[in-house]
Write a structure and sequence with these properties.
18-stranded antiparallel sheet; 11% helix
């Protein structure tokens, strides 16, 4: 590994800092047969950071920055290099191969015309690229199961890859005004985000064994696999602006704010009010604090919003976060804090096997389809994702903390968290008979119209049938059981006398 860092003051108001790391895989050991396991993964990793800061004068400053990483993790060599007869017996670790890179470049300009007024402008571009691959491995049973197991073992039937990239362009401008010796602060600003996402699947390898070709053709016939191989490019934009007022005087803090967000794919504006407060009792060294706020976020995964394999009409996800707590300081450097919280979630994106785009482009086509009249329908497909999922989380945290001492000594914290998180997919759960009836209707008839309400899917088919599916799924644990969590951190500091 090579690691370097340089900081240089070019002048009184201009400085430059550069750092970088590079990990070199040991290819020499990899060339010696059987010394290192053939499929041992090695990492070829590098990163860098670059920054220039220029204080032009007392009112203007500019910062240029750039940082990025490149991560490539792969096996030492292929088996065929040393054992040709096992050419077809490859690693089953294709999914563990890592090949990705990331880079962000940005510029920040700060303008302070007066001591109480400042304006900060940020412009940046972030680029991420990742190449993945997955293989299917099978036993060739054409010569018998025993021969397949002992003679040849697992053989690669196919390898499919996917190249994914995301290009984010970001602009933000924020102005801050301080009044009455910074007792009262006003902040206002706006952001613009434009994301260009691409994915393009590819066929890397196909085994021409007739038995394996059957499986490969079945995999390639899957709609999601087919859509991935066709690829897609999505551009979505977000606009946001906010204002905030903060009052801070003698331990009394009150912050009021509001934010507006717009997402172009769903063509919707959302308003997010927010509140935060804190009250310190100096006589007892006790602080009460809390807050609540609403937040909106556009779907980020390109597979969710892709026109080929997702639903480009997805709405923004919504959440409400609330907390309240008390902190008590004692002795000279200790504190104990108890904080409770509750979060609610709505319009979360979930995998949906029941949502379709209506094949009737308008109400006239719907009527024509029901009456078996000749008309032109739009292409029908499953949209795969919807905003049906909802959920909540709640809990509390108890923390004891010791501050960093002025001289030598230890400091740290220990905390206990009790929490519960659940989600409801709000999807129909059908028994075998109901599922068979639904699949036959969806397969053999065109969905002329679909209504998606809070509790039901209502489908109208071209044969006149009306199907009503109730969203009867139940709440489930969202993740692994993390009801009880105990964490601690302890450090020491030493200062010579």
């Amino acid at each position: 590994m090579v690691d370097g860092y340089v900081f240089k003051n070019i002048s009184k108001n201009l400085n430059v800092s550069v750092s970088g790391r590079k990990y070199y895989p040991n290819y020499v050991l990899g060339r010696i047969p059987d010394l290192v396991p053939n499929q041992t993964f090695v990492s070829d990793y590098s990163d860098y950071q670059f920054r220039i800061n220029w204080d032009i004068d007392n009112q203007n400053s500019v910062t240029l920055s750039s940082f990025g990483t490149k991560d490539y993790r792969h096996p030492f060599a292929a088996n065929k290099q040393y054992k040709p007869k096992y050419d077809s017996m490859e690693s089953i670790n294709d999914a563990l191969i890592v090949d990705r890179n990331f880079r962000t470049d940005g510029v920040q300009y700060v303008w302070k015309p007066f001591e109480a007024v400042s304006n900060t402008m940020d412009i940046s571009r972030s680029y991420f690229e990742e190449r993945t691959q997955n293989s299917t491995y099978l036993f060739d049973t054409s010569k018998g199961a025993l021969a397949a197991l002992l003679a040849q073992g697992l053989q690669k039937a196919n390898t499919l890859g996917n190249n994914f990239s995301e290009d984010l362009r970001y602009f933000e401008d924020v102005m801050e005004l301080s009044l009455f010796k910074k007792i009262l602060k006003f902040r206002a600003g706006g952001q613009y985000r434009e994301t260009v996402s691409n994915f393009q699947g590819k066929i890397i390898y196909i085994n021409e064994n007739p038995e394996f070709l059957k499986i490969t053709k079945f995999i390639l016939s899957d709609p999601n696999t087919s859509a991935t191989l066709q690829g897609d490019r999505m551009v979505h934009r977000q606009i946001g602006y906010f204002s905030e007022m903060k009052f801070d005087y003698q331990g009394n803090v009150l912050s009021l704010g509001v934010r507006r967000d717009y997402h172009d794919l769903s063509d919707e504006w959302k308003t997010s009010p927010r509140l935060m407060f804190a009250k310190e009792l100096t006589s007892t060294r006790t602080t009460f604090f809390g807050g609540t706020g609403k937040f909106f976020q556009a779907p980020t995964d390109v597979s969710y919003i892709s026109k080929r394999m997702g639903n480009p009409n997805l709405k923004m996800e919504e959440s409400q976060h609330s907390n309240f707590g008390i902190e008590q300081k004692f002795l000279s450097s200790y504190s104990i804090k108890l904080e409770g919280y509750k979060n609610t979630f709505n319009n979360l994106v979930v995998r949906d096997n029941f949502i379709y785009n209506s094949s009737a482009a308008n109400i006239n086509n719907l009527i024509s389809g029901i009456n078996n009249q000749s008309t032109e329908f739009v292409s029908q497909r499953n949209l795969n994702y919807s905003n049906s999922m909802s959920g909540w989380s709640k809990g509390f945290e108890l923390m004891i903390k010791k501050e960093i001492p002025e001289d030598s000594g230890f400091f740290g914290w220990v905390s206990y968290t009790n929490s519960l998180t659940k989600r409801n997919r709000n999807q129909p759960v059908l028994n075998d008979t109901e599922l068979q009836i639904h699949n036959e209707l969806a397969k053999n008839h065109r969905t002329l119209y679909q209504d998606v309400s809070k509790d039901y899917y209502t489908n109208i088919y071209d044969n006149g049938n009306i199907e009503v599916l109730k969203k009867n799924s139940k709440e489930e644990y969202y993740d692994l059981d993390r009801t009880h969590m105990l964490r601690a951190g302890l450090k020491t500091t030493y200062q010579k006398s």
